Amino acid sequence: MAEDSRMIKIKPQDKTLGFDGTNVERFLADYQLAARLDGASELDMAQQVRFFIRGAEVKDIFETLDGFEPPNWALLKAAMKSHWGRIDTARFTTQDLEELVQGWKAKGGVASVVDFQ
Asked: pTM, whole model, 2 decimals?
C-alpha cells in the first residue's frame, strides 16, 4: 500500500461523539472537524463514520444509504442529511396545531384538543 493512501484513524477529542438519529447537522459538523484535525480524507470519513453510529435501528438505516457501499463521503453525508435532517426540524408549531383544531372545531368536526391527546 502506498504511503499516501494509508487510512488515517479518526480520533475525536470528544470521546462521546456519536450519532443516534438526532441532530444530524451537529454530528456531521463535529465529525468532520475531528476528521480534519486528524488529517483524514473523505474516504477515511466514509469508511469510519459507521463506528460513530449508535443504536441498532439507526445502524440498519445507515447501512442502506447512498454512499455507504462503496464508501463515498459526499453521497453519504447528503443521504444522512436527507434522511435524518427532517427529524431535526419541526414542521409545525403548537400554535399551528391549535389553529388547525380551532378551524375544524368551528366546522363541527373536532370536539377539543384534549380529546385527541
From this structure: 0.70
